[in-house]
Amino acid sequence: MSAAYRYCEAVTGAQARNFAYGIRLLPGPKRQAMSALYAFSRRVDDIGDGDLPAEAKRERLERTRDLLALVKDRQIRDDDTDPVAVALSHAADRFPLPLDALDELIDGVLMDVTGATYETWDELKVYCRCVAGAVGRLSLGVFGTVPGARDAARAPEYADTLGLALQLTNILRDVREDAEGGRTYLPSEDLEKFGCAAGFKSTAVPDGADFTGLVHFEVRRARALFTEGYRLLPMLDRRSGACVAAMAGIYHRLLDRIAADPAAVLRGRVSLPGREKAYVAVRGLSGLDARQASRRSA
């Protein structure tokens, strides 16, 4: 079992630096469970992002769904040869994980495989809930809420909303990279409103487009989602809250950088230096973000 978790932690550390930064703040069992969730989610994402033909991707995603069904039915043995399945099954025994959310993740990646586009924000929200909100709800299964937490029944809703905020930030950060891969996530009605329907396949803003206006419009939407999602923080114990505050805080600062220089996302990937990530982690451990969220909720 420990070998299976070590494998998942190695995958997390190598491929998800922002995520790994947050889960370092968790106690061992929770950190292991979060690594298992990430490793399974990474497998699903890698299928969607790979170079296989669409039909082959669909077949692999459905085989992954079959594996998930075995995890749900507790049919994975400790000596199984798949360390991700072993770790995820053990984590599901330890924590009340809503494993159906991983089915939603597979559904979201299937949207990518079929080349889905989104006319409105309401349509894009469905995709974001599958690929990010679902991960937020799964993470809450690991974190739990503190006894007597006010409005605890709404914790899954806030976790879901925080996932949407992170995913919309990702979409803004990766707008050019996605365009080069033939994908467009921002709602087409927003693109048309700001004269950006032609897309973003170069470092230059399209002629006649109000790219800055488009980015600021989406940034305001993401900030509203962050504000709502941060209501989750006062419901978590100190270390779980620090983990969430660190991960969300890194993305919130990325959003601030994008807002300050919208064209930067056309020139390359916007990121934070390590010292700034460390500051965000310390801020999360201090409980400052949770106290601020509590005051806003009150």
Description:
The chain starts with a helix and ends with a helix. With 298 residues, it is mainly α. 71% of the residues lie in helices and 0% in strands. It is globular and about 60 Å long. The model has no long low-confidence stretch (mean pLDDT 89).
* Outline: globular
Task: Describe the oligomeric state of these chains in a short phrase.
Answer: single chain
Which sheet architecture does the biggest sheet show? Answer: none
Radius of gyration: 19 Å
Provide the succession of SSEs.
HHHHHHHHHHHHHHH
Annotation, overall tally of beta strands: 0
The number of distinct helices, counting runs of at least 4 residues, comes to 15
Structural class: mainly alpha
Average pLDDT = 89
**Stretches where pLDDT falls below 50 for ≥5 residues?**
none
Helix content: over 70%
Strand content: under 5%
Distance between the termini: 43 Å
Q: What key phrases describe this protein's structure?
A:
15 helices; 298 residues; single chain; globular; 0% strand; mainly alpha
Produce the secondary structure layout.
Blueprint: H1 2-15, H2 17-23, H3 28-49, H4 54-72, H5 83-94, H6 100-113, H7 121-143, H8 155-173, H9 175-180, H10 188-193, H11 211-229, H12 238-260, H13 264-267, H14 274-286, H15 288-297
